[in-house]
Amino acid sequence: MPELAETYACVPSTERGRGILISGDPKSNKVLYTNGRSVIILDLNNPLNVSVYGEHAYPATVARFSPNGEWVASADVSGTVRIWGAYNDHVLKKEFKVLSGRIDDLQWSPDGMRIVACGDGKGKSLVRAFMWDSGTNVGEFDGHSRRVLSCAFKPTRPFRIVTCGEDFLVNFYEGPPFKFKQSHRDHANFVNCVRYSPEGSKFISVSSDKKGIIFDGKTAEKIGELSSEDPHKGSIYAASWSPEGKQVLTVSADKTAKVWDISEDGSGKLKKTLTCSGSGGVDDMLVGCLWQNDHLVTVSLGGTISIFSASNLEKSPLQLSGHMKNITSLAVLKSDPKCVLSSSYDGLIVKWVQGLGYSGKLQRKENSQIKCFAAAEEEIVTSGFDNKIWRISLHGDQCGDGDSVDIGSQPKDLSLALLSPELALVTTDSGVVMLRCTKVVSTINLGFAVTASVVAPDGSEAIVGGQDGKLHVFCIVGDTLKEEAVLEKHRGAITVIRYSPDFSMFASGDANREAIVWDRVSREVKLKNMLYHTARINCLAWSPNNSVVATGSLDTCVIIYEVDKPASSRMTIKGAHLGGVYALAFTDEHSVVSSGEDACVRVWKLTPQ
Amino acid sequence: MGVADHSKSTYLELQRKKVFRYVIFKIDEKKKEVVVEKTGGPSENYDDFTASLPENDCRYAVYDFDFVTSENCQKSKIFFIAWSPSVSRIRAKMLYATSKERFIRELEGLHYEIQATDPTEMDLEVIRERAS
């Protein structure tokens, strides 16, 4: 049975112009964040140890551990809060529809009995506080007229709740049952985050007007500000207190994080400015932060998580990254089978090393979107949503210069002849284009709607699949294609065709959930009835020893068939990737790497039966 | 559509005396009745049965499934399988679909009925799940 060996997690999904809220559990040193419909629990001590909760029906926005660490409350854009167990199976305890719009922040009361949620809604329901197990309201929260971006619960008794929002207000409520007490309009722009210090004596509000204001925790009187010498030069998106309550970490759109010393009288003095190394573009704007034990965690707009050490602020941070969007292709480098390259449609190529995890991003000179991606020994070939094919040379971790060639229409599929990688076959809507290096050698109009293609490793043969399910086998003669045979067995548009590594067989998958293995020479069906998926087959991979074929589908499953055994003796990995599996590759005989819509890459180990 | 006597008696032999593991029935269009196409001995297993079904044509089949329940009792259930692959001719599918009711009425003692349009729908796992 296949077992999950490693997960290379996605990073928090970010949005330009808004901060994100990440949270954690100081006891187990775990960090919680959301991406798409999943909530990810990342262990800071071991970033490869990742747990994913995918039960939300809508994109999740924020998640928090309960004070005792047993439960997690997570919220999504539909206004639903789900409370589930933090360990093992993440059993759902309760689900409440709390607000009528998206929930932007969620906080537990320090005794774990109440939860306050705030966000967007219509009219009155912008903030609600309720008992965690019964959902009964514990107060009325009026006072805000626009989206409430953050809320905080005073960690010590007497309980107070503070909320802040897009109407520039910071509101203070006393209770329970919570009632409006005071409002402050000291900020001149959206107030992005409000946080209480751990002993409850003060709280800080940070805003897009680049200021941070400190208030008294019990009376909500303004007692000070973050000093204006060397302030942030951009909107401050989030703030987090140190565990002793003496320092605050703030992150801002000016791409820096600052640590401030907060004195007893409430004024803040800058202690240190932390910058992350980066290309300096928009992606380096910092949008989220968390101070947990000794770690200062900051998240950038591009999804890079930087972990600084609080006790040693000079040390350069550990940087983790990953994909934020659907990973559409995977490639395993022949020269280094432990290394996996994954690319997502937004143009990000990440290199992962088995056993270590994130190993770096491949920076290309031209950051266009990527639809198809193939890797050969020393170069990668990509195609995007424009009409160009890029060939970029790869030296270790760096991308060299790339050359592009315009092929006239949008490429739908791309395949490299592995043994002679200058030959590339690109399919377009009505035909194929053959490329040698970056020269278009021929454009052949085939007359039928082409959906998938593959070229043989030695460049002698090509197979093109059409919308009608027919496979056309062509012999490559010089620069032209000569049709040799048409194979009809599929009942749906062909989605993927792959040759086996030893070139003796090829396998094809279609949109009608069926996969077939053919013998290449005789063009006879070798293994059929591989119909066990319940949705279209997106990707297919052969194991290096030609004995195993893996298929991945939109139905989130990966099914592994052994070519010598009947199709019914198969191994299924259910729920491999929430949203569908989009790419598969084998790294060695027993390891399959899969990636999908949830922006994660997973490595599975197959134990032979 | 008639049911040949031989079909019914073969079925009764499977049910009462356990002479066969499976019986495959075909509709004989000339005589307009359901006749026995093939029978399998008690030593044959499910894979032999699946192999005997044609890929492109419809059939009716009766299979005697032996299994052990969670309380450790040896049980046997008779399955009726209406095999109608999606690749077969539409005429065949219609013929077999309309005659099925008439035929099933003749077979007493069927425990479960399965309609399969491709091999995955009559996979051994599916049968096992239905039985328990």
Automatic annotation (TrEMBL), chain A:
The keyword Lipid metabolism does not apply. The keyword Repeat applies. GO terms for cellular component: cortical actin cytoskeleton. WD repeats lie at residues 53-94, 229-263, 487-519, 530-571, 574-609. Pfam families: WD40 (PF00400). One of its GO terms (molecular function) is actin filament binding. Coiled coil: none annotated. It comes from the Eukaryota. Keywords: Actin-binding, Repeat, WD repeat. GO terms for biological process: actin filament depolymerization. Binds actin. Enhances the F-actin depolymerization activity of actin-depolymerizing factor (ADF) proteins. This is Anaphase-promoting complex subunit 4 WD40 domain-containing protein. It comes from Gossypium davidsonii.
From TrEMBL, chain B:
InterPro entries: ADF-H, ADF-H/Gelsolin-like_dom_sf, ADF/Cofilin. The keyword Nuclease does not apply. Pfam families: Cofilin_ADF. One of its GO terms (molecular function) is actin binding. Residues 1-132 form the ADF-H domain. Keywords: Actin-binding. GO terms for cellular component: actin cytoskeleton. Gene3D superfamilies: Severin (3.40.20.10). SMART domains: ADF. The keyword Ribonucleoprotein does not apply. GO terms for biological process: actin filament depolymerization. SUPFAM superfamilies: Actin depolymerizing proteins. PANTHER family: COFILIN-RELATED. Belongs to the actin-binding proteins ADF family. This is ADF-H domain-containing protein. It comes from Gossypium davidsonii (Davidson's cotton). The lineage of its organism: Eukaryota, Viridiplantae, Streptophyta, Embryophyta, Tracheophyta.
